[in-house]
Amino acid sequence: MTNERVRNIRKEVLSDNWYTLHKFTFEYLRDDGHWETQQRESYDRGNGAAILLYNKEKGTVVLTRQFRMPTYVNGNEDGMMIEVCAGLLDGDNPEDCIRKEVEEETGYKIEHVRRVFKTYMSPGAVTEINYLFIGAYEDDMKVAEGGGVQDETENIEVLEFPFEKTLEMMASGEIKDSKTIILLQYAQINKLFGE
Questions:
Q1: Which of 106, 107, 95, 121 lies closest to 66 in space, CA to CA?
Q2: From first to last of its 195 residues, what are the pLDDT tens digits of the chain?
Q3: How many CB atoms sit inside 10 A of residue 185's CB?
Q4: For the whole prediction, is pTM greater than 0.70?
Q5: How far apart are CA 95 and CA 134, in angstroms?
Q6: At 18, phi and psi to the nearest 5?
Q7: Cα–Cα distance, 21 to 126 (Å, whole number)
Q8: Separation between Cα atoms, residue 44 and residue 65, nearest integer Å
Q9: Beta carbons within 8 Å of 72's beta carbon, 6+ residues apart
Q10: φ, ψ for residue 172 (rounded to 5)?
Q11: What does the DSSP assignment read for 69-106?
Q12: How far apart are the first and last CA of the chain?
């Protein structure tokens, strides 16, 4: 850590149940030269990876739909979210992680992935870095049904949409997951599907 405006960091564990919630107390040097004590809570759930699977020839993308409790208790009427395939690294490097997640969640076995972003998705409260990828898929790469890992209580529906439809779904609010929006907009800006 190299920020000379931060000193005397103290860390306290508030919860260590599913993931870890810490409280940090520290001193921060303000622009006026005075040190002030601040406190922040930070949720550590590990780092993750996500991927937009695309088929240029068909003009389609593969997404998933699953129940997300935090969205359900914060106004998402049925708690269901349409998202790109994603998962926690769990000790893997991001590329290996995302290939494994693709097969578990969607049933496609892909070899080639390309990292396009490394992002902090909610830097005010969550430590997670998310590595965002794109990867081409073809129908003959389907080796299983997908749906997630049973012992991880994943109930994932695999969806295939025309790319243009996903842009409409973003505009209508049907797709509201930030990593998915970032990757779909990346595909649009970089003309992944041509003009």
A1: 106
A2: 789 999 999 999 999 998 999 999 999 999 999 999 999 999 999 999 999 999 999 999 999 999 999 999 999 999 999 999 999 999 999 999 999 999 999 999 999 999 999 999 999 999 999 999 999 999 999 998 888 776 666 789 999 999 999 999 999 999 999 999 999 999 999 999 976
A3: 12
A4: yes
A5: 11
A6: -80, -55
A7: 9
A8: 24
A9: 78, 79
A10: -80, -15
A11: HHHHTTT-TT-EEEE-EEEE-TTS-HHHHHHHHHHHHH
A12: 45
**CATH architecture of the domain formed by 48-189:** Alpha-Beta Complex (3.90)
Closest CA to 13 of 1, 5, 25: 25
Strands 48-55 and 129-136: parallel
CA distances from 102 to 52, 67, 68, 184 (A): 10, 18, 19, 17
Count of residues for the chain?
195
Q: What is the DSSP letter of 108?
A: B
Please give the backbone phi and psi of residue 185, each rounded to the nearest 5 degrees, phi first: -70, -35
**The two structure tokens encoding residue 8:** 């005397």
60 and 162 Cβ atoms separated by less than 8 Å: yes
**CB contact at 8 A, 143 and 109:** yes
Residue 91 in contact with residue 46, Cβ under 8 Å? no
Angle between the N-to-C axes of helices 163-172 and 178-189, in degrees from 0 to 180, rounded to the nearest 10: 130
Kindly list the domain boundaries of the chain, sorted by start residue.
6-44, 48-189
DSSP 8-state code for residue 152:
G
